Amino acid sequence: MRSDVSNPRNPPVVVAVNGSRIGPALVDLAAAEAALYRAPLLIVHVWPGRYTGAYRGRGAVASRADAQRLLDLSARRARLLRADIPVTSYLFDGGAAFVLTEASWSARLLVLGHRDESYARPTWGSTTAYLAHHTACPLMIHGGAAPSQGPVVVAVSARPEGNATLGYAFARAALVGAPLVAMHMWTRPGAVDGVPPAVRPGAYVEERAAAEKALAESLDDWTARFPDVAVERVVVNDSDMEYAVGRALRRGRLMVAGIGLSGSFAELLCNAREARAGLRRTSPTILIPRMGVAADTVATSSRAHVRSVLDAIDTSAITGSKGPGNGARAATV
Hints:
By secondary structure, the chain is an alpha/beta fold. It folds into two domains: 13-142 and 293-332, 3-Layer(aba) Sandwich (Rossmann fold), CATH 3.40.50; 152-283, 3-Layer(aba) Sandwich (Rossmann fold). The chain is 38% helix and 17% strand. It has helices at 23-37, 64-81, 96-104, 126-134, 163-176, 203-225, 241-251, 264-270, 300-319, and strands spanning 13-16, 41-47, 87-93, 109-112, 139-141, 152-156, 180-186, 231-237, 254-258, 285-288, 330-332. The chain has an eleven-stranded mixed sheet with strand order 8-7-6-9-10-5-4-1-2-3-11, sandwiched between helices. The radius of gyration is 20 Å and the shape is elongated. The two termini are 23 Å apart.
């Protein structure tokens, strides 16, 4: 990642609200995360009123006064819920996906929501899906529930680039005192484009043993660093992965996964939901960005402006002074 990321002392947890029904639950989740890490909380809303690009929203655009009121109410809720953390709000102009991508460069954690619309559509909205592939910091996606019990579940790629994901999951499990379930999927040789491979007798046992060995080797270093974290190892093949992921999202307190090179696992999480009566209540998901995330998403001046806003908020939260955003000021991007 970049070396010029925002104030390294205590970067904020950033949550984006847009007036949807899940907004209060989203603020509650972000406030809990900020309290857990003893970090400041920044609540943002991106108002599209002056945005000149393509706007995909439906219905009339809310007024600036409505957007500011949303921020005020959200910040008041967070302060009542967590009086022990600094809470700041800020109103941006622009495109939500681009502004939040730039904010992720200066954030500890970015918290977004899922759709609260029809069951037939993917659970993530377009902005959340975009951030899943472009965020520069860990991205938490609220899935409708925030259980305080159950294990932390981590999807293990068993590749060197997955070390950051494992490290985050182990540290999180240690922080909250939860067990860790390490889940590794292996793809059977020849299983391309959904075509079942021709498997010789005994090959399944060999493939599973190889997958178990790869998982064990990936965990060795982290279990030594975190000896107090109880780890359960789960190995599944590609045909069972969708079921295993859905079960983990329903029974765990948190899913941690890497975005990966292709983003296929993120897409699987995007469409996960509870099978009963079209419900979508699943545990939150945290996606860990891969190294070398592309940064050229908006103009350089806009990038610098968004980062400077977060830098100022971070500093004011640490020193206790009133910085930009305490009155839900606006910034044009």
